[in-house]
Amino acid sequence: MSGSETSTIMKTKNLSVGYNRKTVLSLVDLCFEKGKFISLLGPNGSGKTTLLRTMAGLLPPCDGSVLIDQIPLSEFRQEYLAGILSVMLTDRVSPGLFSVFEFVALGRYPHTGFLGRLKEADKKIVISSLSQVHARDLVSRQIETLSDGEKQKVLIARALAQEPGLILLDEPTIHLDLKHRMEVMSILQNLCRKKGITVVASMHDVDIAAKISDQVVLVKDGGIVSWGPPENILNKKSVAALYDFDGASFNPDLGSIEIKCNGNRGAVFVVGGIGCGAVFYRLLAKRGFAVSTGVLHTNDLDYYVAMSLGAKCITRSPLEKITRDQIDEALPLVSQADYVIDAGFPVSGLNQMNTELIRYALAQGKPVFTLRKEEDVKRFLQTDSENLIICENEIRLLDKMEKEKSRLKLPYL
Question: 166 and 68: one domain?
């Protein structure tokens, strides 16, 4: 047996899954290693839940097989399988009058025999499971009194009490607020890292999946589109194709989805750099402006955000001094802009030429809104133009720009 086989806990071979004689996914060949976090990603109705139910033994395969530790799932006795595999579906918990301890103790049933009597060792495992999910303080509470986030942690504790090597979850954060969503995902990731448990979860949050998954599986159009490390699989093109959107963009460098500018309220040129422009790009996109920017180094945070939002961007290679060539390329965009924003970037030898874009805009009679203090304006811009409007922060700057638009009664307002 090869090293890859000994590290594999679950494998599917030529698997087809479905229900009511209807095949939803075909030719699914996947291999999940021990101690890894795997996210199933895809639009609603793509078959993620059906695949999970089949891998859990809750639905029979239409064709092919599921193997755990190289043994077909169909050959496991149910009570033995429960000691290896735990399943959490999206159904809300309605366990009646159970206390948290009693509910988590149900996870010990593969180990307690027919009568289900708990020994001291079983009780310690129940308490330990609650502690691992930061829910030890809930032990005496009634399940019905818990919040959704607390219930989800208790569900994970019950799964841990089974002492499984593999946990399958269907949208584990679907009912949760942001705090509990982050907490649950952190708990699941720690189970992989510290306990060596394999977690396979269907998810909708591409941002989170990109950050915590060891592997992602893209599910669409009746099959597996691709699978592997998120660093290799998730990119602007693959995510857009998976969810059929063109008004947003996934940026693998940021690990986030940005909503693109629609540009129906006029054009703004942002003189950014060193991360100072990112807030403006997002604010302007939210308010419906077309954004252009530069000159940005291509290892700058501003560059990644601007490109994700669909902004026109004049660039320079990392650690190279901005030259007259890039400035000349940016000047037409400044001329076309209704307004220019100076994001207040720290001036250095590499980006000093960008100050010429600001002076050019002022010479063209354009209003320029800046975050620089008055002494820095005199030092770096060397101007006292009345068209240069000093602002305290990003929001105040945008508000002043909006008032200026309203005063001029531009036709696209």
Answer: yes
In a domain, 388, yes or no: yes
Strand order in the sheet with 198-203: 85-88, 166-170, 198-203, 37-41, 215-220, 223-228
CB 198 within 8 A of CB 38: yes
Query: Which structural domain, as residue segments, surrounds residue 272?
Result: 260-408
Provide φ and ψ at 107, rounded to 5°.
-70, -10
Same domain for 326 and 395, yes or no, is yes
Give backbone dihedrals phi and psi of 129, rounded to 5 degrees, phi first.
-65, -40
pTM: 0.81
pLDDT for residue 314 is more than 90: yes
Backbone phi, psi, residue 148, to 5°: -60, -40
Kindly give the residue spans of alpha helices, DSSP state H, lying in 268-409.
278-286, 301-308, 324-336, 355-363, 374-376, 394-408
Same domain, 180 and 271: no
Q: Are the C-beta atoms of residues 43 and 244 closer than 8 Å to each other?
A: yes
CATH of the domain at 266: 3.40.50.2000
Residue 392 is given by DSSP the state S
Domain-embedded: residue 14: yes
The answer to whether residues 14 and 119 belong to one domain is yes
Residue 148 scores a pLDDT above 90: no
* 214 and 355 assigned to the same domain: no
If asked whether residues 330 and 217 sit together in one domain, one would say: no
Asked if residue 295 has a cis previous peptide bond (ω within 30° of 0), the answer is yes
Per-residue pLDDT at 410: 47
In this structure, the answer to whether residues 178 and 302 fall within a common structural domain is no
- Give residue 310's pLDDT band: very low, low, confident or very high (50, 70, 90): confident
In this model, does residue 117 exceed pLDDT 50? Answer: yes
How many domains, in total, are found in the chain?
Answer: 2
Residues 235, 285, single domain; the answer is no
The predicted pLDDT at position 300 comes to 95
Element containing residue 251 per DSSP (H, E): strand 248-251
Over the stretch 7-53, which tens digit does the pLDDT of each residue have? 899 999 999 999 888 999 999 999 999 999 999 999 998 999 999 99
